Amino acid sequence: MSKERKMVKGKDSDRFLFYGVLSVLVLAPLAFGSVHVWAYSFVELCVSILVTVFLFKRIFCTRKYHQIELVSSPVYPFFLLLSIVIIIQLLPLPPSWIKSISPVTYTDRLKLSPLNILDGSPGSSTTTWFSLSYYRHATIVEALKILSYMGIYFLVLNTVKTRKQLDTIIYVLILVGLFETLYGIGQTFSGKQKIWWWTNIYDRGWVTGTYINRNHFAGYLEMILPLSFGFMVAHIGRKDKKRRWTSKRSRIRSITTYFQDQVFSRMLLVFSISVSMGAGLLLSGSRGGVICFAVALSLTGILFLLKRGFRRHSVFSMMLGLIILFYGVHIGIEKTIKRLEQSEQGLRGRLEITGSVIPMVMDYPVLGVGLGNFTHAYTRYSLKQFSSLNHAHNDWVEAASELGLCGLAIILSGFVYYLFILVRGFLKRNDPYAIGISGGVMAGMVSIALHSFFDFNMHIPANPLTLSALLGIGFIVIKMERHSTYDRFFYRTRRIRLNTPARIGLGCLLALAVFFSISGIVRHFMGEAYCNTVPNSTLNRDKSPPVEEIRKAISWDGGNAEYWYKLARESMRIRDAGYRTEEREKVQEAAREGMWDRKECQMEIIRALEEAVRLNPLKAEYHQRLGWEYTYLWQEPDYHRRWLPAADLCMERAAYFAGGKDPRIHLDLGNYWIMRSKTIDPASPEREAAWAKACWHYKEAQRLDKRKRLKHEIVKYVWMFYPDMELVGQVLVK
């Protein structure tokens, strides 16, 4: 329902929500861009609490007890559609549905049947329901991040009620950008290259602020810089509009008054901050960041050219760019210029990676491989020089691979539609405040969207979080009118009438949603506190914690496949300690006291590995290790009938999911099939098949081995089973 309302001073709860949003926007970039578990978990928890407080206040504490009122936004339908896609990926679906939606996923699930050999209840993939997402834990972790981005947008839209609050949030973002720049420049030129307590070993000599990667620091600045430029236009235009010159004397008096005005002083300060941030962007050495910001600034200048009364600001935008460039030359950007000259080589590498992801998109065209599953699924499609990647260095293509073309269409449609609304409002409005800030927001949107074609800024939580706040700011300012004594909004609001039972029901539903989201955040954080699996270069965490710590992590978050794999690895270390002289006595003593049994330990290892495979079947390493562990049950009476065929199946799965680009995996598979060939009757054709597989994997390993170090290992291992130079020669590349 459309409504115009005069903005009034918020209550204490609204003030708490507003300052909570500001705190999140400040802390997120300062905490290494919130890439680590402790940082993004804190951000998610804060946003969840803020949204919960807001909704419970609206449902139960509003004056108009029979209705709640929320700001309506054109992107909410896109948020809903994206959430539905993620939910569909997580839900167990009938195999027939999976086959219709994603035939490759269905085929892979058939290859994974049976999954559990140990308990004798493998199940059939033609009857068992399963999800489209291969690794549900990764999807849930990423979904919680996306919900926090949506939450920030929702909070900005519903808590910013005055122009003073709008100015405050913009000032805060600009000051954070300034701090990032000055801190990064200070650390770089001092030679310390520290980010808080941690010494940055990755981008030495470049300005990174409090970000680990310079490209992500540049991604943050290229959103804040246009905002600061638009903020200047908003206030300069406002003063120009008030000024009237009737004579030469009044003109001089007006100009003198203008330069003495506090607004001018503040805008001069913002201009200086913008120049400093621009210099920081240049000193980051991010080619994508510099080029995309230049393109976005040029497009903003074109928009101002189309707007009567604001055409001079297009010249102002060019002047700002030139001043930033001259200032950068003055302080020294020679290294950046050299990097820009080498852009073709960097672009070629990015395009090669993008090209390698396209087949994945074509294999999973409808709903993708699963949100957060890119790094696990990419090994099958990887290039020789990039056998594994955490991200595609192209957020748009990675979104297509994880969410399918449907998910990409939702994101792209929402982005374009939102940009269209801002452009339409920009062209219709005459208020300098609305035009300036909306122009800055649009430039930031375009810049980060272009940069996302060549990097993965949208996977650095602080950046999409800031982008969400910018989207909220842009929508608010384009729907705001300023008057002499007050300001008012003319955006749509939606009133929902609720009686008491409806309020109780909605409150229970909200409480349930909050419980699941917060419990998911806490369980993930506590699991990582005991057993670190998410990369964290800034803390010296133990990557191989003791079994007790791993079990605690599993008790908190049993859906993390890496915990089970680490449990198996640590149990293997304890088992193998019995073969080492220095630890043999401890193991033997534990066995005598009944505290340790070798067979039970072996079964625990297999159970842990089978669980890891069940949770994340895309990891070739899990299949490979499980296959070897099956072979250690050689004393079992059904070894040849049950365990060796199971090991063969695991190795075939490992070869399938590995993708064939990792020489070490080929080496290990070759070793297995050499060993396996010795267990088969020489007259059987199966022995010849096992030998052929071993030869193929060994030759692939040698072909992929750039340093030529594997040949000696291959010869040594084959000689253990076949001390015959003629046979050894068959496995070597001539």
Explained architecture:
With 734 residues, the protein is mostly helical. The chain has 2 domains: 5-91 and 131-497, no CATH class; 620-734. 69% of the residues lie in helices and 3% in strands. The chain is built from 29 helices and 7 strands. It has helices at 12-30, 37-60, 76-90, 95-101, 103-111, 136-159, 163-190, 214-242, 248-260, 262-283, 287-305, 312-331, 334-341, 343-363, 374-377, 395-428, 432-451, 462-478, 500-530, 547-556, 561-577, 581-592, 598-615, 620-631, 639-658, 663-678, 685-704, 710-721, 725-730, and strands at 5-6, 67-71, 194-195, 198-199, 480-482, 487-489, 493-497. The strands form 3 sheets. Strands 1-6-5 form a 3-stranded antiparallel β-sheet. Strands 2-7 form a two-stranded antiparallel sheet. Strand 3 and strand 4 (198-199) form a beta hairpin. Helix 24 (620-631) packs parallel to helix 26. The longest helix has 34 residues, at 395-428. The protein is globular, with a radius of gyration of 30 Å. The N and C termini lie far apart (77 Å). The model is unreliable at 1-10 and 238-245 (pLDDT under 50).
